[in-house]
């Protein structure tokens, strides 16, 4: 068991250093190293080393049925990992790599640890656009499996302090390379229908609008579709009388709020859906509807919860911040600059925990561009506890 996590500083503007060599050595020799990428911080291990990959799952407390993304520093590292793939995949790589796009491709048997693929016949691969990530993977000289560097279920880390909050003492090293870029994880896609269409499995930094420039026909996995949160929303119950199950919502399926504040859980539709993701410890509700109606509803709920003695929080856009009076107001950014709001989302979600908030309400934004990935993450953080006003 690891007890001391070392911190290595690497300057993204000038990554070549002894620290890069040290991080590469640690990875090659079976260690776990967290590093910044242009999306979020990842927790890396040698993808071909079974024991090393297992350490990732142990450090994060990650369920073993959830496969990992393999990170490469160079297209030359791809062919040994995968079987021949379609022309569409090649065009997507040409257009979006390096960058926040993960491609699910047919895996070449026996190369990466079976823990990486969770027994699937595909492997998810990405070539990140971050100088520190690229330098460290190149120094390791092996493909690097890397999920987000958070404890399973918590918001992904966008700063080195987030990594240490969750994993200090559980991993060999963390690289401090400044704030991550996009702030939300990469877009995950698979190629379908013999290479004529794409399916988005997880929305992210490369938007559907971007992808359509290369592949006109795009489908969505059920859990990744725009409006997917709307389809699970329930009409607001008249003033919930009691708090939903107190404490942290974890490892549950999509939940809906019933009158009286009780939670109902429907059966999970896919393994990944078993788990609450990106979630603060408090119980969070996503509120949809016209801004004026949403803020009036939220403020009413906040008052009721405070009267019960609960610590309250709201996740809001700059334009509406003045409308609220709660114990903790996390202003995520402007509706006019959703890219910036995305960068701050996970830090805002973590700030509720830092302030001991027990009940949280979140505003909605339009599901266009990065707004699609933003709302996908907020809906998951709320464990699909969604109310329409
Ligand atoms: O931006 C990112 O993608 C970050 C940084 C560190 O690169 N990584 C990341 O990894 O978000 P993780 O493990 O938190 O999310 C990986 C996602 C999961 O939803 C997983 O189910 C999916 O990718 N995935 C991995 N391999 C897959 C496969 N073979 N088929 C389908 N989905 C896969
Ligand atoms: Mg993750």
Estimate the global geometry from the Cα principal axes: globular
Bound molecules: threonylcarbamoyladenylate, magnesium ion
Can you tell me the CATH class of the largest domain? Alpha Beta
Specify Rg, calculated over alpha carbons: 21 Å
Q: Which architecture of the largest domain does the CATH hierarchy give at level 2?
A: Alpha-Beta Complex
Under CATH, the topology of the largest domain is which?
A: DHBP synthase
Look at the helices and sheets and give the structural class: alpha/beta
Keywords:
binds magnesium ion, alpha/beta, six-stranded parallel β-sheet, Rossmann fold, 389 residues, 2 domains, single chain, DHBP synthase, 28% helix, globular, 19 strands, binds threonylcarbamoyladenylate, 11 helices, eleven-stranded mixed β-sheet
What would you note in describing this structure?
The chain has 389 residues and is α/β, with parallel strands linked by helices. The protein folds into two domains: 6-220, DHBP synthase; 228-388, Threonylcarbamoyl-AMP synthase, C-terminal domain (Rossmann fold). Helices cover 28% and strands 21% of the residues. The chain has eleven helices and 19 strands. The protein has helices at residues 18-28, 50-60, 87-96, 114-117, 131-140, 160-167, 208-212, 228-232, 291-307, 338-354, 370-381, and strands at residues 6-9, 33-35, 42-46, 69-71, 101-106, 122-126, 144-145, 173-176, 187-192, 197-202, 218-220, 234-235, 255-257, 263-265, 283-288, 312-317, 328-333, 359-362, 386-388. The strands form three sheets. Strands 1-8-2-3-7-4-6-5-9-10-11 form an eleven-stranded mixed sheet, with helices on both faces. Strands 12-19-15-18-16-17 form a six-stranded parallel sheet, with helices on both faces. Strand 10 (197-202), helix 7 and strand 11 (218-220) form a beta-alpha-beta unit. Helix 1 packs across helix 5 and helix 10 (338-354) packs parallel to helix 11. It is globular, with a radius of gyration of 21 Å. 51% of the residues are buried. Mean pLDDT is 89; it is low at 238-274. Bound molecules: threonylcarbamoyladenylate and magnesium ion. The site of threonylcarbamoyladenylate has 25 residues, from strand 5, strand 6 and strand 10.
């Amino acid at each position: 068991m690891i007890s001391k996590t070392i911190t290595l500083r690497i300057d993204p503007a000038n990554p070549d250093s002894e620290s890069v060599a040290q991080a590469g050595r640690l990875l090659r020799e079976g260690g776990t190293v967290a590093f910044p990428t242009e999306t979020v911080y990842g927790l890396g291990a040698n993808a071909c080393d079974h024991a090393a990959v297992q350490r990732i799952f142990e450090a994060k407390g990650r369920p073993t049925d959830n496969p990992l993304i393999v990170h490469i520093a160079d297209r030359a590292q791809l062919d040994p990992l995968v079987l021949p793939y379609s022309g569409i995949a090649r065009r997507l790589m040409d257009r979006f790599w390096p960058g926040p796009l993960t491609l699910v491709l047919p895996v070449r048997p026996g190369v990466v640890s079976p823990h990486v693929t969770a027994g699937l016949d595909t492997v998810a691969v990405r070539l990140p656009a971050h100088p520190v990530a690229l330098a460290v993977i190149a120094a390791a000289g092996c493909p690097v499996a890397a999920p987000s560097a958070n404890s399973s279920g918590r918001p992904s880390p966008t700063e080195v302090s987030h990594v240490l909050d969750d994993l200090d003492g559980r991993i060999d090293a963390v690289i401090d390379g400044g704030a991550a870029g996009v702030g939300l994880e990469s877009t995950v896609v698979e190629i379908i229908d013999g290479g004529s269409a794409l399916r988005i499995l997880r929305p992210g930094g490369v938007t559907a609008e971007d992808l359509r420039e290369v592949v006109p026909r795009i489908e969505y996995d059920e859990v990744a579709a725009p409006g997917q949160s709307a389809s699970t929303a329930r009409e607001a119950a008249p003033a919930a009388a009691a708090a939903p199950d107190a404490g942290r919502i974890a490892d549950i399926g999509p939940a809906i709020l019933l009158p009286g504040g009780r939670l109902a859980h429907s059966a999970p539709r896919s393994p990944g859906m078993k788990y609450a993701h990106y979630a603060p410890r408090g119980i969070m509700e996503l509120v949809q509807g016209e801004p004026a109606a949403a803020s009036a509803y939220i403020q009413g709920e906040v008052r009721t919860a405070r009267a019960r003695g609960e610590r309250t929080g709201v996740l809001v856009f700059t334009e509406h911040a003045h409308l609220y009076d709660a114990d903790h107001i996390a202003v995520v950014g402007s509706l006019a600059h959703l890219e910036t709001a995305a960068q701050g989302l996970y830090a805002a979600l973590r700030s509720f925990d830092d302030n001991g908030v027990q009940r949280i309400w979140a505003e909605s934004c339009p599901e266009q561009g990065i707004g699609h990935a933003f709302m996908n993450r907020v809906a998951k953080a709320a464990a699909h506890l969604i109310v329409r006003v």
